[in-house]
Design goal:
By secondary structure, the chain is of the alpha/beta class. The chain contains eight helices and seven strands.
Length: 168
């Protein structure tokens, strides 16, 4: 995933997994759950987000429970990357496992809602096409980029290990 481009959806600090995957819908199919992703913060998010868009947030994005559906809902909606000042640890790993790119960027607050962004994943460079300014995120390690580029952990393992993974 090099030079990924998308529109920014900006949120604040402490966006937790219950806001991403509301508990009341947690046992429903992912398509239904995803329709309620972030509705408490941005009621139009799920209906308006486009494939390739990028979520931008402050500190502690994805804090809370370990529900993997929080990352899965974003992926289902077509979000490609999440740029945040920091992440909840379990969410960070779940994002990678579902093929989302979580980028730690201390300058995330410089990005405005609706800005068009171009991400160079291997270097961590984020170029804001709207403001013509650069931000620097922590570069993603190559082994994690391989998982993300494969579409997540299971597709990556299927490619690496073949049919053994599919049959288990």
């Amino acid at each position: 995933m090099k030079h990924e481009t998308g529109r920014a959806w900006v949120f604040g600090d402490n966006v937790d997994t219950d806001q991403l995957a509301p508990g009341i819908y947690i046992k429903r199919p992912i398509a239904e759950l995803a329709r309620h992703c972030l509705e408490g913060l941005a009621p139009d998010f799920a209906a308006s987000v486009s494939p390739g868009d990028i979520v931008v947030a402050g500190r502690n994005f994805g804090a809370g429970s370990s529900r993997e559906q929080a990352a899965e809902a974003l992926r289902h909606l077509g979000v490609k990357a999440i740029i945040a000042q920091s992440f909840g640890g379990i969410f960070y790993r779940n994002a990678i496992n579902f093929g989302l790119m979580p980028l730690v960027c201390t300058d995330a607050s410089q990005i405005g809602n609706g800005d068009r962004l171009r991400i160079d994943a291997p270097s961590g460079e984020i170029f804001n096409l709207t403001t013509k300014r650069n931000c620097q995120a922590q570069a993603m390690p190559e082994h994690l980029l391989r998982i993300i580029n494969a579409g997540g952990l299971l597709p990556y393992l299927e490619t690496r290990l073949g049919s053994d993974v599919k049959n288990d």
